[in-house]
Amino acid sequence: MKALIISDIHSNVKTLESIRKAESDCDVIYCAGDLVDYGPFPREVIEWVHKNDANCVRGNHDDIIIDLYRNGNSGHDVAEDEIKWAHYNARLLGEAEISFLESIPVYRTFEMDGYSYTMQHLYENYLTIDSLPKYDAFWAERNVRTIEAKEYRRIIFGHTHRRCIHYLSDDSLWLNPGSVSYRRRDDPSKEAHYFTITDGKIAMKSLVYDRTPLLEAAQKLLLKEEEMKVAYFFFG
Question: Which residues of the chain form beta strands (DSSP E)?
Fold first, then answer.
């Protein structure tokens, strides 16, 4: 089986379309959260997730958009020079999309090709699991069945936008596919980052894609200055 592992889409449907074309032979898709915010195409991303039957967990930015929508704070009364990406995303989405985001679980557990997985958007803010006891505790909290002693365990995180595979033992690791949309400011690369897992073998992938439609869409928006700087860094 071939699985596509993605995370931190941030309303960037263009990268999803390019990745899906490049990995057209994948059998299943898992997304470690943050479908929306900080991008121009939140509705299209949710449509893509539905169309491709992607298995997602909910991220902190998904919660931000849900909260803005539910509390009537989508920015309609905000001055034009104070509008943020989150306001714009909340305005574009309707009840059906928000209800879908709310329905996404915080974590998932599943098995694939002899490996057991737990997937959650983040651990504790930007902290990572750096010891086997922490790993065991996290695993025990999220898996309802008894784990066999020799079972291979894998945890999938998102959130940091930093691609990584971290081994705690030969049979216990956590991995982060990075972001399909953008890097942190100390990383100038612009390509999409993601993983594929084929018959248990993990492969780090990078893909250059056309960011022009994203920048053009952002330039048409009335966002506050700092948010526009973010857009130029992400998509310029």
Answer: 2-6, 28-31, 55-56, 107-112, 115-120, 152-156, 164-169, 172-176, 192-198, 201-207
